[in-house]
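FAQ: What does the model actually see?

It sees only this:
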Amino acid sequence: MTTSEVATVLAWHDALNAADIETLVSLSSDDIEIGDAHGAAQGHQALRDWATSRRVSAQLGRLYVHDGVVVAERSGPDPTSDALAFRVVHDHVTSVFRHQDLAAALAATELTESDVID
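And it is asked to produce this:
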């Protein structure tokens, strides 16, 4: 695990929650890929469009990390939770995918409970 991967994800998510689009873009690669079960988009403009369309802020829970992949469990104001899977390269988020729950994100990334950060 590297501290920079986790720090990058935490800063990226804080910028998203704060609607700080410029910081969000600066922490993202030029060709960032954003996706979920319904599809994906790529690039800074897609990131800006997606981030400005969000209305809900969420808190991160448990974090898992291995070899540039970070999975973050999230909880929002409603009782449901989901998880985000990030790929971080050279302190930039290169992809982020929303999964319906933590188990799905861990399965998609092949991370396990042994990758959790205490």
